[in-house]
Write a structure and sequence with these properties.
Largest sheet: 12 strands, mixed
Order of helices and strands: HEHEEEEEEHEEEEEEE
CATH architecture: Clam
Strand content: 35-45%
Helix content: 10-25%
Number of strands: 14
Structural class: mainly beta
Shape: globular
Length: 221
């Protein structure tokens, strides 16, 4: 039982997120392909992402195999604020993911255990960076869209992520979907979102209590 829980912890920390949340992927970078200029689609999505300064709401996260089999489902609440501040409360597992802008803490209340890792600003290692970092889409991906559905396809890299899909609604993603080359899909749906609001900064801090087991993870460093 404990091994299963720890495996599920790793799965969340690799996501998001987020945002929202999915797997934290160890990506090996290759030189980006030179681009003659950004596309209109890239500029439009960039403008929408840049406009997000803070948000809070609820999420539902599902991970499915290529054949559609549901591996895991989680729900909870989130708060985020630029730059790089995140709180991700998972209802079913009594787990909490907090970023103070430099460090990520993934806390499991049941096992009194916290995993600590550095924040990564690489969106192919940390998809939450799309919403929380100063990321220029044209530097690492091709962007296209149909309506409010956006497709982000990384180029010039070796990575587990094949594509990222965003469904934008009133300036914030209602859906964040990541698909890897095995066909596994991580889907995060956001609801009841309040955007660009004042948030209590104390929720983005984390204090390691005495007696908590601490695991230092080098992923994303």
């Amino acid at each position: 039982m404990k091994n299963l829980r720890i495996k599920r912890i790793s799965a969340l920390a690799s996501l998001l997120p987020a945002l929202l949340a999915a797997t934290w992927l160890a990506a090996q970078e290759l030189p980006g392909q030179p681009q003659p200029g950004e596309s209109e689609d890239t500029a439009r999505l960039q403008q929408q992402l840049d406009a997000i300064q803070s948000a809070s709401g609820q999420f539902e996260q599902m991970i499915r195999e290529a054949d559609g089999y549901l591996i895991d489902r989680q729900t909870g609440t989130f708060s985020l604020q630029k730059p790089r501040l995140l709180r991700w409360d998972i209802s079913e597992l009594d787990q909490l993911l907090v970023s103070n802008g430099e460090t990520l803490y993934l806390y499991d209340e049941l096992f009194q255990q916290v995993t600590v890792r550095n924040w990564s600003s690489d969106p192919l290692v940390n998809p939450a960076a799309l919403l929380l970092d100063d990321i220029w889409l044209g530097d690492w991906a091709a962007v296209s869209h149909s309506g409010e559905s956006w497709l982000i396809e990384p180029f010039g890299r070796t990575t587990s992520i094949r594509e990222i899909r965003l469904q934008m609604q009133q300036g914030f993603p209602s859906l964040l979907l990541l698909e890897d080359f095995s066909g596994q899909v991580t889907e995060i749906r956001f609801s009841q979102v309040e955007q660009n609001i004042d948030l209590d900064s104390s929720q983005f801090s984390f204090e390691i209590r005495a007696g908590t087991e601490v695991i230092y993870d080098e992923v994303g460093q």
